[in-house]
Design a protein that fits this description.
- With 216 residues, the protein is of the alpha/beta class.
- It has two domains: 133 residues, 3-Layer(aba) Sandwich (Rossmann fold); 69 residues, Arc Repressor Mutant, subunit A (Orthogonal Bundle).
- Helix content is 55%, strand content 14%.
- It is built from eleven helices and six strands.
- It has a six-stranded parallel β-sheet, with helices on both faces.
- The protein is globular, with a radius of gyration of 17 Å.
- The chain starts with a strand and ends with a helix.
- About 7% of the residues have low confidence.
Length: 216
């Protein structure tokens, strides 16, 4: 069962999201609120698997709130919804990933992509709407060109095994599923991920998967 908390300021949006989630037999909504306080309270007291929240909350920005939630509930994955009027800039997407947010979804994509995005981040993957994904790829490409020493990046493409592993992570597959598909053991897979993180200067597997998207 995937437990989910909602922190969405618009009542109609909350109702739509709630209805979509209730259609899934393995989803359970454990709290529903409208601001950052509600999200943090749920993270602290209930430790949901997923928190779905607005990019811009009434009382705090999601980029400020994400690291706090991650400290209070490290196992909770964060999925952020962008509105059409939000300024989706390259650095905003990158900062979201650096803050520990695993999913960035455009509101217009909610009907088709909310459920798969939840499953993806629940299993340790990352989910980005296409526009957001393009911003992330462009940002990391530009940053790498601007300061390769600072990012500690070795400039050559990933191996096929590394790409397959990172592609599996981005699609939400578990380590066991990825290892089985590639016919390698779990230890080798995790060692490979560690090497990629070190080579790309990534703090976690989500950042490594995003960086690798330009090679996928």
């Amino acid at each position: 069962m995937i437990t989910i908390a909602i922190a969405i300021r618009d009542q109609n949006d909350r109702a739509v999201i709630t209805a979509l989630l209730k259609e899934q037999t393995d989803f359970r909504i454990i709290s529903s609120g409208l601001d950052g306080y509600d999200a943090l309270k749920s993270a602290t007291t209930q430790h949901p698997d997923i928190i779905i929240m607005d990019f811009h909350l009434e009382d705090i920005d999601s980029l400020e709130l994400a690291p706090i939630i991650r400290r209070k509930s490290p196992s909770t994955a964060l999925l952020v919804l962008y509105s059409p009027d939000d300024q989706i800039e390259q650095n905003a997407v990158a900062n979201s990933l650096k803050a520990g947010i695993s999913g960035c979804l455009l509101r217009q994509d909610v009907f088709n992509n909310l459920v798969p995005s939840i499953r993806s981040v629940f299993y340790g993957g990352v989910y980005l709407s296409n526009l957001v994904k393009n911003h992330a790829i462009n940002y990391f490409s530009m940053s790498a060109e601007a300061s390769p020493v600072e990012l500690n990046i070795a400039w050559h493409p990933f191996t096929s095994t590394e790409l397959n592993i990172l592609n599996g992570i981005s699609r939400g597959y578990t380590d066991r599923e990825i290892a089985k598909s590639l016919n390698i053991n779990i230890g080798s897979l995790r060692n490979c991920i560690s090497r990629v993180k070190k080579r790309t200067g990534s703090k976690n597997r989500t950042q490594a998967a995003i960086f690798a998207m330009q090679w996928l």
